[in-house]
């Protein structure tokens, strides 16, 4: 018993140290966002002093000079729209794949799973060309692109959960006169809530933090996401507005961190629910 306690204490100490190491960069960015630009490079690991403190100047510069609020608005629109479309389309697709046994449904499932294996670098240049020709280089057009890239994981998780739903529940709904669509929305969808939340959290964190896909697809002269604006804060000849970058990073990180912390308990619940069968 004493040996187990010592092992537990050692493990706790190790994971505590690792947690501090992972969290430390966030705090470094946070207190540097309140310092003058010149001192961020000279004294990056010191707390702001009366000499180096600039208050909210860096945050105001990020908002006014670089249009961060507009970027946040487009990022929210793309993230929310993409997640809603992914959840609706992939859950219905997974239900069809699971309940309609056949070569077509099996082929769709294999294609969705295979899409998780293909590296993004293999398709990014072709994707940019096709998106431009199909006029998908807008915030509402890129939602379709995100649907294609997010479908693999979502369909995989939804299929695992649908297999755990007793078929008798759906048969009872059909006997009572429900159409297939009504059965899905009235019976299946409420039962799939844990997986909906889990997939929604994972897709939200991915889309909100994504840089490469919006950079390749969007018309950056008209539309910029938060990640693109932060990249554009690096000017020509190596000029970097470190103060504005630090402030922008904090404003970009806080929403997704708060969202994740408030919903993290549903991730494990949703993954475990989807792993019951299949």
Short characterization:
The protein is an all-alpha fold.
Q: How would you explain this protein's 3D organization?
A:
It contains 13 helices and no strands. The protein has 278 residues and is an all-alpha fold. The protein has two domains: 2-55, no CATH class; 59-274, MetI-like fold. Mean pLDDT is 84; it is low at 274-278.
Kindly list the characteristics that best describe this protein.
single chain, 278 residues, mainly alpha, MetI-like fold, 13 helices, globular, disordered C terminus
Largest sheet: none
The whole-number mean of residue pLDDT values reads: 84
Q: List low-pLDDT spans.
A: 274-278
Question: What gap, in angstroms, lies between the N and C termini?
Answer: 38 Å
CATH architecture classification of the largest domain: Orthogonal Bundle
Approximate helicity band: over 70%
Q: Do you know the CATH topology of the largest domain?
A: MetI-like fold
Number of strands: 0
Q: Please tally the helical runs, counting DSSP H or I stretches of 4 or more residues.
A: 13
Radius of gyration: 23 Å
Q: How much of the residues is beta strand, in percent? A: under 5%
Query: Can you identify the CATH class of the largest domain?
Result: Mainly Alpha
Listing every helix as H and every strand as E from the N terminus to the C terminus, the arrangement reads HHHHHHHHHHHHH
How many domains would you count in the coordinates? 2
Described by the principal axes of the CA atoms, the overall outline is globular
């Amino acid at each position: 018993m004493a040996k187990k306690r010592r092992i537990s204490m050692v493990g706790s100490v190790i994971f505590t140290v690792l947690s501090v190491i992972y969290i430390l960069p966030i705090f470094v960015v946070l207190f540097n966002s309140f310092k003058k630009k010149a001192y961020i490079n000279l004294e990056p690991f010191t707390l702001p002093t009366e000499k180096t403190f600039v208050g909210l100047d860096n945050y105001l510069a990020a908002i006014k000079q670089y249009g961060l609020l507009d970027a946040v608005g487009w990022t929210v629109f793309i993230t929310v729209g993409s997640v809603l479309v992914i959840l609706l389309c992939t859950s219905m697709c997974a239900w069809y794949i699971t309940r309609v046994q056949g070569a077509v449904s099996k082929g769709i499932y294999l294609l969705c799973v295979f899409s998780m294996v293909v590296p993004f670098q293999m398709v990014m240049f072709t994707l940019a060309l096709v998106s431009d020709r199909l006029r998908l280089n807008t915030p509402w057009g890129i939602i379709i692109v995100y649907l294609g890239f997010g479908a693999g994981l979502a369909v995989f998780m939804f299929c695992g959960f649908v297999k755990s739903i007793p078929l008798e529940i759906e048969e009872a709904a059909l006997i009572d006169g429900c159409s297939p669509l009504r059965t899905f929305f009235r019976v299946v969808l409420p039962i799939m809530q844990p997986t909906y939340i889990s997939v929604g959290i994972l897709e939200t964190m991915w889309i909100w933090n994504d840089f490469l896909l919006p950079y390749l697809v969007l018309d950056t002269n008209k539309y910029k996401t938060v990640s693109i604006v932060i990249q554009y804060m690096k000017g020509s000849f190596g000029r970097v507005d470190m103060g504005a970058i630090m402030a922008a990073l904090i404003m970009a990180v806080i929403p997704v961190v708060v969202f994740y912390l408030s919903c993290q308990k549903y991730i494990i619940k949703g993954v475990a629910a989807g792993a019951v069968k299949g």
